[in-house]
Amino acid sequence: MDTSLYKSFITISETGSLTRAASILHIAQPTLTRHIKILQKKYKTQLIKTGPGQRHIEITPAGQILYKSAKNLIAIENSIEKDIINCTNGARGTIHIAISSSLTSGIISASVIPFTKIYPDTYFDFQEHDINKQMQLLKSGIAELGLCNKLLPQPELFDTHLTCESRLAIYINKKSKLLNNFVQNDVFIDDEKKLLKFPIKSLKSTLLNVPFCTIPESQELIANYCKTLFISTNPLSISTSKSTALQWALENRAIVFAPLSPGEPVPGDLKVYILPSDTFRCYRFLYTLKNRELSPITQKFVDFLIDQHFKEGHYHSSLNILKNI
């Protein structure tokens, strides 16, 4: 649609001057005058008034109606153009993700929010399930992506795009004294001084004497560790989601064992102690079904994750990681 006539009239109306309007539009003034004549002929009425020696242009009542309608027309055209470009480029739509419940908060903070700043017309459908249900959702096409904390049962059916190593951490309220007898001095392990090193020699006594909560993923690691020490422990709570587990620490009722994902923010009221990664390693896997083409917006999100996390050094090739599991 050629809207140049309407853009000319809008600019004249807003500047009140043919000279200024021509300068803004970068066209010759005679061309601008011709545009007005074409519009007046089309609508069979006078749209502007200029008196002898009068520099300022007055818009007639009919011209004011045209001005408002032309503004709406240009806005509609711009909206149509944007929608078509977005559709063509895959820059809008819903991304359907089957995800382990412990990963949702981390992926939202680290990746979803930055992605939606680039593609604001993107929506996310998170379906939190166990590993078997995630596999079913991927196979059925209900979910396009799988963000899982374990290897899928039938790995030959899926492409693994990313493998991320996370650290098992202990979350504790900053006001808590639960670890006072087990951690003598806080040692920061990051430049921002947000992450602390937990002394592994104190872990056994901590598990036996301090109330703690976990999520299924971290409880499995804790249970395996306890077997090597021939001890048994009873967590205060095993929550299905990390956010629920952290509430125990926020309320200063217990410490919480949970993985810390790359880029995941830490609640301001909590301290985080990192456990040695060679003893407590957690992994996240990004899956898609083999030979299934992704929607344009989902493919953009996959590319974004790969670019984002390889730059930050959090993700590694699946082959190298899996050799060491």
Automatic annotation (TrEMBL):
Keywords: DNA-binding, Transcription, Transcription regulation. Residues 1-60 form the HTH lysR-type domain. Transmembrane segments: none annotated. The keyword Nuclease does not apply. The keyword NAD does not apply. GO terms for molecular function: DNA-binding transcription factor activity; transcription cis-regulatory region binding. Belongs to the LysR transcriptional regulatory family. This is LysR family transcriptional regulator. The lineage of its organism: Bacteria, Bacillati, Bacillota, Negativicutes, Veillonellales.
